[in-house]
Description:
Number of strands: 0
Number of helices: 7
Radius of gyration: 42 Å
Shape: flat
Amino acid sequence: MARGKPKKADIGDNSALSEEDAAALQVHYVAKARAAMAEVEEARAEVKSANAGLKNIFDRVRADLNLQRKEVEALIADLDKPVATLRAEHAKRRKLLARHGVMVEQGDLFARPADAADEAGMAYEDGLRCGQLALDPTPPKTTPPIFHNEWMKGWHEGQAQNGAKLKRAEEILSARSAPDFSDDDDDDDDQIDIEEALDPDVIADKARKLKKSGFMEPAPEDPEDVLAPEVVH
């Protein structure tokens, strides 16, 4: 009778392991698990710090612009979409709302050139969006090569607009944190007054004026105020 081949041990099947081999694998896996757990804890700490920074940004947005976190997140999600997709979604939303009697006026989502209805205009708008978001200056595959130049024109214009807005925002925030020296002149005057008051020449001059005015002369004594001499026995 032919003997069958020995069964190959699968994951979780330790029947074929000797105690020595099991101990070796255990040490190996424990070391791997400890290292991986340390990486996970480090990553959690980084995520916690990043979330704290993100929360701080949303708190500032709420204070300065009165926008809630969900509104900003929805806006960012919209800005990450191509212009054509975003317009189609908004058109559908307006249609659905109109069925309930809610009429929403249609407005431009981005600055539009005169020929924005054609493909060249759409390429320009999409490039403008990507430039404003500081995305890579690479036209997407959905933009025909013939319109790549229009896309790049939009990208550069978006970069210029973005740069101007960021510069203005920096000016606003810098003005808020700049120290106020409006009372410095008064402080300087106070310092000058103190220095003058301690000047020996100034003190001597004021003393001479007081003496000349008679302020420093002793007043005549009132007979009633003169004490009788003490009698010594």
